[in-house]
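User: Here's a chain of 254 residues. Predict its fold as tokens.
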Amino acid sequence: MNTDLTINHEWNNSVNVQKLDKLTEDLNRDHSSLKTLELLDVMINEIFKNKITLVSSFGTEAALLLALTAEVNPSTPVIFLDTLKHFPETLEYRDKMIERLKLTDVRSIKPEPSAAKSSEAEKMWETNPDGCCYIRKVLPLEESLLGFEAWINGRKRLHGGLRSDLDILEHDGRRIKVNAIANWTPYMIDVEWKKRDLPEHPLIPFGYTSVGCQPCTVKPNPGEGPRSGRWEKFSKQECGIHNDKKPGGYDAGL
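Assistant: Prediction complete.
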């Protein structure tokens, strides 16, 4: 497909959003109906070859997209945001999945030490979770995405909230975002998970359905959505890495 868009490192500084809009429209038209493996193959090995990464939380549903990506190309860069606040079980699960799927380029990205280790930052999650996420996730991710023209993530419409009407392909004002399994249902996930004999996150047996940083994750209440245990005490649905980048500036979600 001729996208009529030259993609280069200048994306990291200034972008013609109208061109990104057109590219996203073309990508959705030509590729959004593909099966997930075919979509990943086209994005990783053709259109954005050597310029695309998968951002993974190694959370409760992460193994599926990691496995699909590894099947297409196990050398695909994988970015894991090590916030220094994760459950130990998540870090163990990350290492287990790296070995299991033979992933060769997993990058564990930590926040800037002085910002994350200050006395204010250590407890920021209690009073200002947006600011905490900004220091520990948003800024580190933006830096780690330098040089990439697209990134894959595991958001799904079934999560509800701001994710209910996700397109398969979108952009964040700087790069293409591939929501590769946005339209997967719980049944589809379960079938593929069993087919691939994927190990579950070690916190699932204890009732966790969505796992983020330890201080901001609790078990969901019965009958509530799978992400209802995230930032339970705040009117917060997302960590901020999926907030749109606006022309002329960066919306940190603060």
